[in-house]
Design a protein that fits this description.
Layout (H helix, E strand, L loop, with lengths): L1 H7 L16 H9 L2 H6 L4 H10 L1 H5 L14 H15 E3 L8 E3 H8 L5 H7 L16 H4 L9 E3 L6 H6 L9 E3 L1 H14 L8 E6 L2 E6 L5 E4 L2 E4 H4 L4 H12 L4 E4 L2 E4 L4 E2 L3 H14 L6 H10 L1 H4 L2 E7 L2 E6 H7 L12 H7 L14 E2 L2 H7 L8 H11 L6 H12 L13 E2 L13 H10 L5 H9 L9 H9 L2 H6 L5 H10 L14 H7 L4 H15 L5 E6 L2 E6 L2 E6 L6 E5 L3
Parallel strand pairs: 1-4, 11-15, 12-14
Antiparallel strand pairs: 2-3, 5-6, 5-9, 6-7, 7-8, 9-10, 12-13, 16-17, 16-19, 17-18
Helix pairs in contact: 2-23, 2-24, 4-11, 4-23, 20-21, 24-28, 27-28
Length: 589
C-alpha cells in the first residue's frame, strides 16, 4: 500500500500550484493553526480538517491494530462502541492554556475585523466576552479557564490539532497517550467513523456552541460524541454526572455552527452552504434525540441529576416483613457504591443494600412516596404540553418544599430540550457547492485522488490540502504566515536564550517530524514535542528570530538534503529528509 500512496502524493511542480490570492491569505493561513476562534470566523475550515484526517495514514493504520480484528463482522453500532473504547484508551482531553500559548483580544479583533465585527464576535465567542446564559456559565469565565492570572485582554490560542499533532502529545512531559481539545476529538471521531466504522459522511453532523464542539451521528436513535465519550439517547436522559456534563452545551448555549460534508451554517453569516434537506433532517433527528416521553423512569432519572428536589421525596420498602421508609437522598447516594439504580428494575436490590439505621419506621412528614409514580404512569402517558396532564401530575407531586409547578417545569426541561438553532433569528440564503464523491469502503488512495480532482471546484477540498500540511501540493506562503505570526510558545520558551543556544536546542531535538512525507509541522508543534525535521527547525528558528527583529527580511531554502535559513546576515543550516524544493522569503511576496 505504501508505494501506491506515495504515487498519489508525488510532489506537484510549482507551475501546477496556483498562488493563494492576497484577500484569502488570512483564511488559508488559519488552516495551519486552526484555533477555535479561527474556525468560528472561518467555518469553511472545519470540514477540511475532517478531510485531512481522512487522508492521514495514521487513522488508516488503526485497522491493523488487534483491537479492530474481525471488525467487519460487527454491526455498525458495535463498531462505534469499539472505536469509542480505542479513543478512550489512546487519547485524553487537553485544554491547557500553556499548550499553544497566548495572544490578546486586541490583536485578534484587529486581525478578524475585515471578516466579522468586534461586537458580533463578542456576543458569540467565549474568548471575546461571551459568558453564556446560566448554569456553569454563572462562574467567572476567565477563572473557569484559568485566565484570571493574566490581564483581562489575554486569551489563549486554543488550536485544534490534526491527528498527527494529537499523537505528538506522546512526546510531551506528562503525557503517555495522545491528546486534543473538543474540536480535535470531534474531527478525529468523524474521520474514524468514516474509515473504520463505515459510517457515511452524510450521516455525520458537527455541532458547535461557543464553548463546545461535538458530532451528531444519525444511526439508530442517534449518537452524540462528547470529547472522548459517546452519548446515546438513553444516556442523555439517565441523570448521571457524565450525562449532566454532556448536556451542558446544548442546554445552555446557542448552536453557532452546524457543519456537514455538504457545507455549513453559521449563526452570524447570512449565507449557508449546507444542503437544506440535510440540515432539516439533522434538525428533526437531533430534536427527537433530545426529547423523551415522561415516565416513572424519566422522573427518577431527573431526580438523580437534581439533588435539591430529592428532599421532596421518600421511598417505601419492605424489610423483614415490615414497611420502612428511606429518604430519596439516601437511596440515590447508595447508587455510588453499587451497580443498582433507583430508576430501574434493580431498585429492590439497591434498597436491600441500605443499612437498617438509615430506615424510618414511619413515613416522613412532608415527603412524597416515589413508589406511587410507578402506578401513576402506568395509568396513561403524560404529555406536559397538555394542561390537563400537567395538572394530573401536579396533584401527584404536590411538594411541601416547593411549588409543584417548579418541579414540573424542571422535569419538562429535562425531558424536552429544544436547541437554539443558528437560523433561529432569520432564514439563511443557501448557496450550494458541488459534492465530493467520498463513500465508505473507498481506499485511501482513491479518497486522496477524489479530493485532488475536486480542488478547483470545491473550496473545502482545496483547504483540505492546506490542513493536510503537504507543502509539495500547495502554495507554502500561508504555512509560513501562520508560523511567523501565530507561534507564541517557541518564542516564549526561548526568551532568555541567545541565538547560539537556540540553534543548539534545535539541533539536539530528534531529527524526526511528527508528519510523514512532505507534510510539515508548525514551530510550536516542533517546540512542544521536541521533534522536527531540519526544514521545520529552520522555520522555527526564523519564527523566534523574527519576533526579536520583526523588520529583518529572511529567506528559507529547502534543496535536497539541506534546509537553510538566511537571517540578518547569518546562515543556519539543518539536515532535512522532507524532499521539498522551496524558496520562501519574508516579507511574503
Amino acid at each position: 500500500m505504501e508505494s501506491s500512496i506515495n504515487r498519489i502524493l508525488l510532489p506537484m511542480t510549482e507551475n501546477h500550484i496556483p498562488p493563494v490570492p492576497a484577500e484569502r491569505l488570512e483564511e488559508v493561513s488559519s488552516a495551519y493553526t486552526l484555533s477555535d476562534m479561527e474556525i468560528f470566523v472561518f467555518p469553511s475550515l472545519f470540514y477540511p480538517l475532517v478531510y485531512a484526517n481522512i487522508m492521514s495514514p495514521v487513522i488508516w493504520a488503526w485497522r491493523d491494530d488487534p483491537w479492530f480484528a474481525n471488525f467487519e463482522k460487527l454491526s455498525p453500532y458495535r463498531r462505534i462502541q469499539r472505536l469509542k473504547q480505542f479513543i478512550m484508551d489512546n487519547y485524553v482531553f487537553n485544554l491547557d492554556l500553556e499548550t499553544w500559548g497566548l495572544t490578546t483580544q486586541e490583536r485578534e479583533l484587529a486581525r478578524f475585523a475585515p471578516f466579522i465585527s468586534p461586537e458580533t464576535i463578542a456576543k458569540s465567542n467565549a474568548l471575546f466576552g461571551y459568558e453564556g446564559d446560566r448554569f456553569y456559565f454563572d462562574i467567572d469565565i476567565r477563572r473557569h479557564f484559568g485566565l484570571d492570572k493574566y490581564t483581562a485582554n489575554v486569551i489563549p490560542y486554543w488550536k485544534t490539532e490534526t491527528v498527527e499533532a494529537m499523537n505528538g502529545f506522546r512526546h510531551m512531559p506528562g503525557y503517555s497517550v495522545g491528546a486534543g481539545e473538543c474540536v480535535s476529538l470531534s474531527t478525529l471521531y468523524a474521520a474514524a467513523l468514516f474509515i473504520l466504522c463505515g459510517i457515511s459522511l452524510d450521516d455525520i453532523f458537527w455541532v458547535a456552541t461557543p464553548l463546545h464542539s461535538q458530532n451528531y451521528v444519525d444511526i439508530k436513535e442517534g449518537i452524540l460524541t462528547n470529547n472522548r465519550r459517546l452519548v446515546t439517547k438513553a444516556m442523555w436522559f439517565n441523570g448521571t454526572v457524565l450525562s449532566t456534563k454532556a448536556r451542558r452545551a446544548l442546554e445552555n448555549e446557542q448552536v453557532t455552527i452546524v457543519a456537514h460534508h455538504s457545507g455549513w451554517m453559521h449563526t452570524v453569516y447570512p449565507d449557508a452552504s449546507i444542503d437544506p434537506k440535510a440540515y432539516q433532517r439533522f434538525k428533526k433527528k437531533l430534536t427527537a434525540f433530545l426529547q423523551t416521553p415522561i415516565t416513572s423512569e424519566i422522573l427518577f432519572n431527573f431526580l438523580r441529576q437534581s439533588p435539591k428536589r430529592q428532599a421532596c421525596f421518600q421511598i417505601e420498602l419492605m424489610r423483614s416483613g415490615k414497611r420502612r421508609w428511606v429518604t430519596a437522598e439516601r437511596a440515590y447516594a447508595f447508587e455510588n457504591s453499587c451497580s443498582y439504580k433507583v430508576s430501574d428494575a434493580t431498585r429492590d436490590k439497591l434498597l436491600a443494600e441500605i443499612d437498617e439505621d438509615d430506615l424510618f419506621a414511619a413515613p416522613l412528614p412532608d415527603r412524597i412516596p416515589l413508589n406511587k409514580f410507578d402506578d401513576f404512569f402506568k395509568s396513561g402517558a403524560i404529555d406536559l404540553d397538555n394542561e390537563e396532564h400537567r395538572q394530573r401530575l401536579a396533584r401527584e407531586v404536590d411538594c411541601y418544599h416547593t411549588e409543584a409547578c417548579e418541579i414540573i417545569k424542571e422535569l419538562q426541561a429535562f425531558a424536552r430540550l429544544e436547541p437554539r438553532w443558528p437560523d433561529a433569528d432569520k432564514p439563511r440564503n443557501f448557496v450550494r457547492t458541488p459534492s465530493i464523491p467520498l463513500t465508505p469502503g473507498m481506499s485511501r488512495e482513491n479518497i486522496i485522488a477524489a479530493l485532488e480532482a475536486a480542488r478547483e471546484t470545491h473550496p473545502a477540498a482545496e483547504l483540505a490540502f492546506h490542513v493536510f500540511r503537504d507543502l509539495a501540493r500547495v502554495d507554502p506562503r500561508p504555512y509560513l504566515k501562520a508560523a511567523i505570526e501565530r507561534s507564541p510558545v517557541c518564542i516564549e520558551g526561548t526568551r532568555t536564550m541567545e541565538t547560539p543556544m537556540i540553534v543548539a536546542c534545535l539541533r539536539e531535538m530528534a531529527n524526526e517530524s511528527i508528519f510523514d512525507s512532505t507534510r510539515v509541522a508548525q514551530p510550536d508543534e516542533v517546540w512542544n514535542t521536541r521533534h522536527g525535521d531540519g526544514f521545520e527547525k529552520a522555520v522555527t528558528l526564523a519564527t523566534i528570530l523574527h519576533a526579536r527583529e520583526p523588520d529583518a527580511p529572511f529567506t528559507i531554502q529547502a534543496v535536497g538534503p539541506a534546509a537553510t535559513l538566511d537571517f540578518a546576515g547569518q546562515t543556519h543550516s539543518f539536515p532535512t529528509n522532507k524532499g521539498l524544493n522551496l524558496n520562501l522569503t519574508w516579507p511574503l511576496t
